[in-house]
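Sample pair:
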Amino acid sequence: MKDRDVARYWNNNATAWMEHIHEYGNPIRDLFNTPAFNEFIGDFPGKQVLDVGCGEGRNARFLAGRGARVTGMDISGGLITFARQQEGKEPLGIDYVEASVSDLSVFDDNSFDAVVSVMVLMDVAELDTGSREIYRVLKPGGRYAFSVRHPCFITRDFRIVKNESGDARLLVGQYFDHQPRLERIFSTRTDKPMVVPKFPYTLSDYINYTVNAGFRIEQVLEPRPSVESCERHSPLRFWRKHAANFLYLRALKPG
């Protein structure tokens, strides 16, 4: 699968994605992943920030609300349309651009003070090229941070099972299978499945693509849900006790 395939699937599912966001909550995202990642990256007041894979603009609006000057880019023109509609209703000064992370030629070299990507890179067809493009558009001394599903635990065949005592355990499989796949991520109220491409990068892929692009890795984090978030949403207890659901990485462009 190539960029054009990723764009086609996400464009076909843009309306379903927006329906899901507006109609249903996502406790793992809202109680755990989003606040943990925002704490990890910190604030960028007055800085030019590129949100790679901005989707409908949720994270771009959050960053802009905390003082950043944000440009959001996404491969899906359908999602960019929704993002621009929201910007029209509640202006935050965000510029939205339709582009692929593997081809950021719409941006000049050294354009941004920081680049962030929230739960997107496992959906990118050419992450090695994309990492080099992110390095190119980032200013020397700028920071790059991303979050992804943890590749060691959220594998092609991962599943949670219970043993004879009723204790939950995580089974993983086919970690080294690099073949792209189509994955059903949820259904809307009409039970229409939303199917999108996924690219099963390994832990070493994420690290090596970042380093080979020229970045110096500053910190890697495997966040755990807080006790409070587990009390509010009991399924989070499994991820606090047994395995990391997400992987965060922050890196610096030397200079």
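Helices lie at 3-23, 27-41, 58-65, 77-89, 127-137, 203-213, 227-232, 236-241.
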